[in-house]
Design a protein that fits this description.
alpha/beta; Aspartate Aminotransferase, domain 2; 7-stranded mixed sheet; 397 residues
């Protein structure tokens, strides 16, 4: 077996299961799960109906490039959403089986191990664990850039040594961020683009939370490039219907951006075997063409934040994020920054599951930037979220 598999760390939810292995919560309290970022709102009927109407798509092998109708629907959505020139559906868009598999496989296709040095993949810290796993299995060295409150939870690019930049082949960004919900500004993008121009690395922008926002739609990478007068060179964007359309089981997303990079990625995928069923493609095209269900979904999340932030602000130090469906909360002082101990105690005493922030980060540059925090995913029904917040607030007081 591939020896690089031994470098993978346990997934956060494996660690959480181990943390709770012998915990005994109060059976009189119903369980409220705020740990996993899996959307629980109903999948829109238009997606279900499109699947039913296209069962015939099961009768043929799908093409890796995907159906033109889906690529055109995605191109139209990108143009509308970000006020950019319509991407070329034939060369600048590639349907994928959700952003997770594409984030992973893109790194495998992108990393060049024949340059005489160990390649570096830079990741924000905390981060979506796929970034690290993809880097390790591609034979690259992950480098973590901490995202701290004093920097508005944005990566401190200035802290990266030139020696690291010289070996960097790919940089992951996540905006809106998981777990912080922070959104990159135009100045943030300008700084990163300038670094990419100087050092030649690819920017892989994970934008799967882009449609869950409150005051204004988050700036996207392609939009930032347009505003800064740039083309799409060395830039790829990943998006998905999982969060936008409450369809995590559909496993549908896309990669868009630099046509030269996508041509090579398409070649990789013809061997990788990740073509999307025509039935799923039809349902995906219907979803990308409809905004009514997205607006309703956004309103449902807004109602949760309106209800929960006042309950938890004083005891867990939360505030409304820029976007996404997470609260990045502080554990009470009496836990001395031990977020895992807080999560276990909250499970035992409140029967509420939260995710320790340190499980989403790595020790880097002398600290673990997730330590002393917990992530709350506001995906459960509103009443359950409120009940869980009330229990946590009472427990943390």
């Amino acid at each position: 077996m591939n020896p690089l598999l031994d470098r993978l760390q346990p997934y956060p939810f494996q660690r959480l299961k181990a943390l709770f292995a012998d915990a005994r919560p109060d059976p009189a309290l119903g369980h409220v799960d705020l740990s996993i970022g899996e959307p629980k709102h109903p999948t829109p009927d238009l997606i279900k109906q499109a699947i039913i109407a296209h069962f015939g798509g099961l009768e043929q092998y799908p093409a890796t490039l995907g159906l033109a109708d889906l690529r055109h629907a995605i191109a139209d959505w990108l143009s509308r959403r970000y006020d950019i020139a319509r991407p070329n559906p034939d060369s600048e868009i590639l349907p994928v089986l959700g952003s997770r598999e594409a984030l992973f496989s893109f790194v495998q296709a992108s990393i060049d191990r024949e340059q005489g040095y160990t390649p570096v993949v830079i990741s924000p810290n905390p981060f979506y664990q796929i970034y690290e796993g993809a880097a390790l299995l591609a034979g690259a060295e992950p480098y973590y850039v901490n995202c701290l409150a004093e920097q508005a939870f944005q990566p401190d690019w200035a802290s990266v040594p030139d020696a690291v930049w010289r070996r960097t082949q790919l940089v992951f960004v996540c905006s809106p961020g998981n777990p912080t919900g922070a959104v990159m500004t135009l100045d943030d993008w300008r700084a990163l683009f300038e670094l990419s121009d100087r050092h030649g690395f690819i920017i892989a922008s994970d934008e799967c939370y882009s449609e869950i926002w409150f005051d204004q739609p988050p700036l996207g990478a392609l939009q930032a490039a347009k505003l800064l007068g740039r083309d799409k060179s060395r830039l790829v964007v990943f998006s998905s219907l999982s969060k936008r359309s409450n369809a995590p089981g559909l496993r549908s997303g896309f990669v868009a951006g630099d046509a030269a990079l996508l041509a090579r990625f398409l070649l990789y995928r013809t061997y990788h075997g990740s073509a999307m069923s025509a039935m799923v493609q039809a349902a995906s095209a219907a979803a990308w063409r409809d905004e009514a269900h997205v607006e309703a979904n956004r309103a449902a999340y807004r109602a949760k934040f309106d209800a929960l932030v006042p309950i938890l602000a004083e005891t867990l130090g939360v505030s409304r994020p820029d976007a996404a469906f997470y609260l990045w909360a502080k554990v009470p002082d009496r836990f001395a920054g031990d977020d895992a101990a807080f999560a276990r105690a909250a499970f035992e005493q409140c029967h509420v599951t939260v995710l320790p922030g340190s499980y989403l980060a790595r020790d880097a540059h002398g600290i673990n930037p997730g330590a002393g925090r917990i992530r709350l995913a506001l995906v459960a029904p509103l009443a359950d979220c409120i009940e869980g917040a009330k229990r946590l607030a009472e427990f943390a007081a």
